[in-house]
Write a sequence for this structure.
């Protein structure tokens, strides 16, 4: 089964590295996609620098719905069997 974890982020520079690190530490065969919802901080750059996540940066803020929808469309287009959302601040 091909699994994708979608992490929508908006100004999560303080948290995104730890969130990605926690997911990687689980040593599961999932892929991680960060959907940067036009953050004004360096969330996308931090996520990229981990080397463990693909990053899509939206050109303008779509909100949580648009970010998650972007992730699900990515999952469909890349033929993932399972896609789930994980909060960019690690709360949910």
């Amino acid at each position: 089964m091909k699994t994708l974890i979608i992490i929508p982020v908006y100004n999560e520079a303080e948290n995104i590295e730890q969130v990605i690190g926690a997911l990687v530490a689980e040593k599961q065969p999932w892929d991680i996609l960060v959907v940067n919802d036009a953050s004004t901080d360096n969330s996308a750059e931090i996520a990229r620098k981990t080397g463990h996540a693909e990053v899509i940066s939206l050109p303008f803020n779509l909100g949580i719905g648009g970010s998650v929808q972007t992730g699900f469309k990515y999952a469909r287009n890349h033929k993932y069997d399972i896609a789930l959302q994980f909060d960019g601040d690690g709360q949910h």
Summary: Residues 32 and 52 are 7 Å apart (CA to CA). DSSP finds three helices and four strands in the chain. The longest strand covers residues 3-9. The beta strands are 3-9, 30-36, 54-57, 82-85.
